[in-house]
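Quick illustration for those who missed Monday's session on complexes.
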Amino acid sequence: MQPSVLSPPVLSADVALFLDFDGCLVDIAPRPDAVEIPHGLFQRLDRLHDRLNGALALVSGRDIADLRSWLPDFPGVIAGSHGAELSLDGTTIQKAHDIDLDVAALHADAAQAVSVHPSILVEPKPHGVALHYRADPSLRAVAEAAMRRLARAHPGMILQPAKMAIELRPAGTGKGGAVERLMATPPFGGRTPVYAGDDLTDEEAMAVAQAYGGFGVKIGEGESLAFYRLPDPSALAQWLDRSLQGGA
Ligand SMILES: [Mg+2]
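Prediction with magnesium ion bound:
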């Protein structure tokens, strides 16, 4: 798989646009709660939502309540927790999996599993848990081993590697599944899907977009199956603005 190097074409008005959050709309921060919202992001998303007739979705590993705290007036659909939850109307949140999960026990077990490594950040999620080892990348193997044990102890949960993190999410979810589900739903259905993201977790969603005749845009470095690439969130913002001025 050769890394893509081409810049994406400006968007036309008939696309369905799926955007990751961390490393895509905002720069990666040392901790998930330390991201900074770039100037003009709210207005850009509002304008895209209008121009694409509502076919705009956030697709993130973060849960929807967390995403709403950063983008309180986001007008589009939100698929959170790696597709395990979905908000179509901006207010209600539906569970999008059928795993019977004792989430409190999972969170407690995760905290216990890495309690001797305080530099591993435990992020409880409504449908899973993440261990972040960005503060000390040498602890990657420790975090991964802990998560493998947790996956065995909590049937139905599967490993999801991410940037400087490893997560557990319900089996049968994922960002690709979220895109597939939305592409069967108005106003996304019948449009050409375009998916932009920076992480390993985005690759399956970009594969879905490309299988539906659209394209993926990889943000940043690293191997990717995306047809196109942009170097960072700021380049993504400029591309979206060019699309608003010209194509879309
Ligand atoms: Mg990301």
